[in-house]
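Researcher: Let's continue the batch. This sequence belongs to Pyrimidine biosynthesis, and it's 200 residues. Same format as the previous ones, please.
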Amino acid sequence: SGSQAIKALKEEGITTVLVNPNIATVQTSRGLADKVYFLPVTPEYVEQVIRSEHPDGVLLAFGGQTALNCGVHLHKAGVLEKYGVRVLGTPIDSIVDTEDRKRFADRMAEIGEQVAPSAAVYSVQEALEAAEKLQYPVMARAAFALGGLGSGFAHDPDELRSLATQALAHSSQLIIDKSLAGWKEVEYEVVRDAYDNCVT
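Model: Same format as before. Here are the structure tokens for Pyrimidine biosynthesis:
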């Protein structure tokens, strides 16, 4: 999707600057982006690129969890505002609403959508207490984590203790959900443009 975003921006005559440490990806191929920085996608390095390039905007949704986390950090630190960089596409508040597991559950409740009973926790002890209330089996999911790091099912306190310890080493927040194992998951995506054209 990142390569397609770069192509779409170039078709509109927009100069593109890419930060990507992976030299073996289509995104970094010669001639795709106008300029490529082979740097880690961290707040420190991205701020250096922003300071040097003076971009008008930044797209966060095309760099996976790393870019989302980096963008949220840059926003909270005031870096984007300092350099006058707008977030294009998904707004920061929407990113935080979907990445912060408690905020997401709260937003779903506000619009009347049912979600599995859950609790946001910040320590192994809180995770164990939440699981006792929800009753095992439970699913533990780390917020703001790459590839579900530290997430999984726990059938007893020992399994949960292990999962929670791993997850909280990489994330400050963990959500404990009542397990929905055995349910069928259906994913439905809609793409809509500013003129209300939809593709489903």
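Researcher: Any comment?
Model: The domain at 116-199 is CATH 3.30.1490.20 (Dna Ligase; domain 1).
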